[in-house]
Design goal:
The chain is mainly α. It is built from 14 helices and 6 strands.
């Protein structure tokens, strides 16, 4: 299904019909094993992608609770910042077996989800049910890690997210891609994982909600996500402390990571520069994030997200096909 969109890439590397056949055979092998959600859910997997994600989160929470129960702990007790080394090891062990990003990257703790699936599910579900004032929440410390809302959406999807609704159709289209490898990346540092959701900059808490434009914006800021791409540029002289290295964002490191992870489609004309970042929706600056409540805004965001993942999927597939000596 991708052949015509990347045939020009093949032409650079293929010089015979046999070479093309080998590449297409490899494509079938790659796509057949591309969805870890299917593997994780097994027989519970379906074409209802809202249900898939809800079952995935519920299964993960249940397994985490079971793991902690054996240690005499609860989810609340390990939700603060007072983690012992043993707690961190247990959490990492749980992630390796239950976190889709880690499943796609063979347990690498630097793995991360590029685009949140829950955020747009919440946007669409609350928009669709706004006349009833219904809000939806994932398990968290404030609801005692309840999976009630996930169960509602999984068992009664049609009631809360009617498949006849065009916004729900856009959501399901995006979620189908969000399950796949194209929605998972490898960070330069695992600490960047939580900071893509929220971090402190110059003493102020900012919320990025894993949104791609915000991520791309703040990796250019050495006081934000850019701290994972710094290098020493010169020595600074200070009368009190003497000389010390000045650290600045290394643009070569930034561009290298963006290209490695195939995020360049987040920039106008693929030109990697802060001023070229494409916003999530018209009128919302890349550094801005907020809950979307209006249908038109949600639809625009879903289309940005879906198109981004489709574009990235194509890049990843080309990389895998040609990386196996297709010539």
């Amino acid at each position: 299904m991708y052949f015509f969109s990347y045939i020009h890439e093949f032409e650079k590397h293929c010089h015979s019909e046999d070479a093309v056949r080998r590449i297409l055979k490899k494509e079938r092998e790659i796509t057949k094993n591309m969805n870890m959600m299917k593997e994780y859910l097994g027989r519970d997997y379906s074409s209802n992608h809202v249900r898939n994600f809800c079952l995935y989160w519920m299964k993960g929470v249940d397994r985490r609770k079971e793991q902690l129960k054996k240690k005499g702990l609860t989810m609340k007790e390990v939700s603060g910042n007072n983690f012992t080394d043993e707690m961190c090891e247990d959490y990492d062990a749980w992630r390796r077996e239950n976190d889709l990003d880690c499943l796609y990257f063979d347990g690498d703790m630097r793995a991360d989800t590029l685009m949140s699936a829950w955020t747009p599910i919440k946007w669409v579900a609350e928009n669709f049910n706004k006349e009833f004032g219904k809000e939806f929440f994932k398990p968290n410390i404030y609801n005692d890690f309840s999976t009630e809302d996930l169960r509602l959406l999984a068992d009664e999807t049609e009631r809360y997210l009617s498949s006849n609704n065009d916004l729900v159709q856009e959501l399901n289209l995006f979620l189908g891609k969000a399950e796949e490898r194209c929605n998972y990346i490898l960070l330069p540092d695992r600490r960047m994982n939580t900071e893509r959701f929220s971090l402190e900059v110059d003493g102020k808490r900012i919320w990025l909600y894993d949104m791609v434009p915000a991520t791309l914006y703040y990796i250019f800021d050495k006081n934000a996500l850019g701290k994972y791409f710094v290098s020493c540029t010169a020595l600074v002289e200070n009368e009190m402390v003497g000389s010390y290295p000045r650290q600045e964002v290394d643009m070569d490191l930034v561009k290298s990571w963006i290209k490695r992870e195939h995020l360049e489609m987040g920039f106008k004309d693929y030109k990697i520069d802060r001023k070229n970042i494409i916003p999530l929706i018209p009128g919302l600056a890349p550094l801005e994030t907020r809950k979307l409540t209006e249908r038109d805004e949600i639809k625009a965001a879903l289309r940005y997200m879906y198109n981004f993942l489709c574009n990235r999927e194509e890049k990843l597939l080309i990389e895998e096909l040609l990386g196996d000596g297709g010539d």
